[in-house]
Design brief:
Largest sheet: 9 strands, mixed
Shape: globular
CATH class of the domain at 147-339: Alpha Beta
CATH topology of the domain at 147-339: Dihydrodipicolinate Reductase, domain 2
Distance between the termini: 47 Å
Number of strands: 18
Structural class: alpha/beta
Bound molecules: NADPH dihydro-nicotinamide-adenine-dinucleotide phosphate
Low-confidence stretches: none
CATH superfamily of the domain at 147-339: Dihydrodipicolinate Reductase, domain 2
């Protein structure tokens, strides 16, 4: 018997709520609270239809208002809070969790609104306070970050004595039929991918111009795709927790059409995150753009193809060089048929559910702030196979990297 509070009601929250609702014994009481209550109600209504559960509670909340969050948590008394709103709210929600001694889990590291900066420092700084409060915070428990960290830990535990080269490869081989759309919150997504690229080599971070480094990589069941080197937040925690890694990089696929649109958006100033005046009103161009782009949550219906995300690792086992590739492919259509959301929301929402389950079942334990690779990967990966994200592995295959 346990209670879970989900904050946010976007595509990811929908998937997590669906997956939790299907496991009444573990998630016996669920509340979805977000800025727009009607979006929480819509998820609850669809769950009622699918799982005959009419007990999903919904509430309106501004997750940037700590006293309001504390009141909400005190009234519902969740055993775990799963934060699936936006990275801007990480710290206010962590404060409310501390004040109420509630375990916390999220899928994206904190970002200040006025600067697109991706690092764990702000959240890692909460470690001692969470430790003193006797509760745990699990950071970045989506797919990437999230499953990629668990995959890396699995590789370290079962396949290598030392890992030396880590490449995280993220391909969306899907087609939603739109000229331009992002697969998760457009504002967060565009902030992330228009940043300079960055990778780790021999103890140093090397910066590159955005999209400056490209390779054609082959993805299972998808084929060859142009893959671009990006900075991604899990690189920071993985090189910290696996110090034998000499080089760590992150690659993501983009089509030509997508990159052309992105270049235009940047060139005409619509990716700006500073405030400008429009007819006397303060607006942030990127936030305005979000309002006119397709809602990622609505892309599912005609989305074909698959995502393929994994880790390609080189290292040493028993004195011999070894390569290892571990990945998952997820079908957009299958994700939509099950939850009404597309594959990117699905690959994020399922691991968030599993992370919450690990906390509730005390398979992941600790006091303080943790990244997923600090825990035992085995029970998590067992659940991943059971809940629609089967993983596969290849030993000593050619990694192309
Ligand atoms: P959406 O934009 O679809 O949903 C975000 C939700 O948060 C919306 O319901 C929104 O409310 C709500 N929200 C925003 N601000 C507040 C606030 N101040 N108070 C309360 N609720 C608020 O995003 P997604 O579902 O696509 O993504 C959710 C999270 O998952 C993001 O943080 C994203 O970065 C992360 N993510 C992580 C991935 C991973 O693999 N680790 C991959 C993809 C996403 P409203 O409806 O009113 O706008």
């Amino acid at each position: 018997m346990s209670k879970v509070l989900i904050i946010g009601a976007g595509g990811v929250a929908r998937v997590t709520a669906f997956k939790m609702a299907s496991q009444k014994r573990t998630f016996s009481e669920i509340m979805i609270a977000s800025r727009t209550k009607s979006k929480c109600d819509a998820i609850a209504k669809d769950i009622a239809k699918k799982y005959k559960r009419n007990d999903i509670k919904t509430k309106k909340i501004d997750a940037e208002n700590v006293p309001a969050l504390i009141r909400l948590i005190k009234s519902f008394k969740p055993d775990v809070l799963v934060h699936l709103a936006l990275p801007y709210q990480d710290l206010t929600i962590m404060e409310a969790c501390l004040a109420t001694k509630t375990p916390y889990l999220d899928t994206a590291n904190y970002e200040p609104k006025d600067e697109a900066k991706f690092e764990y420092s702000w959240q890692w700084a909460y470690h001692d306070r969470f430790k003193e409060a006797g509760i745990m915070a699990v950071l970045g428990c989506g797919f990437d970050p999230g499953v990629t960290g668990v995959f890396t830990k699995h590789a370290a535990k079962h396949h290598f004595d030392e890992m030396h080269y880590l490449d995280i490869v993220d391909c969306n081989g899907g087609d939603h039929g739109k000229a331009f759309a992002t697969n998760f919150n457009p504002e967060i997504n565009i902030r992330e991918i228009t940043q300079k690229g960055r990778y780790y080599k021999k103890g140093k971070w090397i910066e590159t111009e955005p999209f400056a480094i490209k390779k054609k990589l082959t993805y299972p069941n998808i084929g060859k795709r142009d893959s671009y080197l990006l900075y991604h937040e899990e690189l920071e925690s993985l090189v910290k927790h696996f110090p034998s890694i000499k080089q760590a990089r992150f690659w993501m696929t983009f089509g030509k059409e997508y990159l052309t649109h992105l270049r235009v958006i940047e060139n005409i100033g619509m990716a700006r995150i500073d405030t400008i005046k429009y007819k006397g009103i303060d607006i942030v161009p990127l936030q305005f753009l979000k309002e006119v782009l397709p809602n990622p949550g609505d892309l599912g219906e005609n989305y074909s193809g698959e995502t393929s995300i994994g880790c390609r690792i080189k290292g040493v086992k028993n004195g011999k060089a070894k390569t290892y590739y571990i990945w998952n492919n997820c079908s957009h259509q299958a994700a939509y048929d099950e939850t009404g959301a597309q594959g990117v929301s699905y690959t994020t929402g399922v691991p968030a559910m599993i992370g919450a389950k690990m906390i509730l079942q005390k398979k992941w334990k600790g006091k303080g702030v943790f990244n997923v690779e600090e825990f035992n990967p085995d029970p998590f990966l067992k659940e991943l196979n059971k809940h629609g994200l089967q993983w596969h592995e290849k030993v000593n295959a050619k990694l192309e990297l």
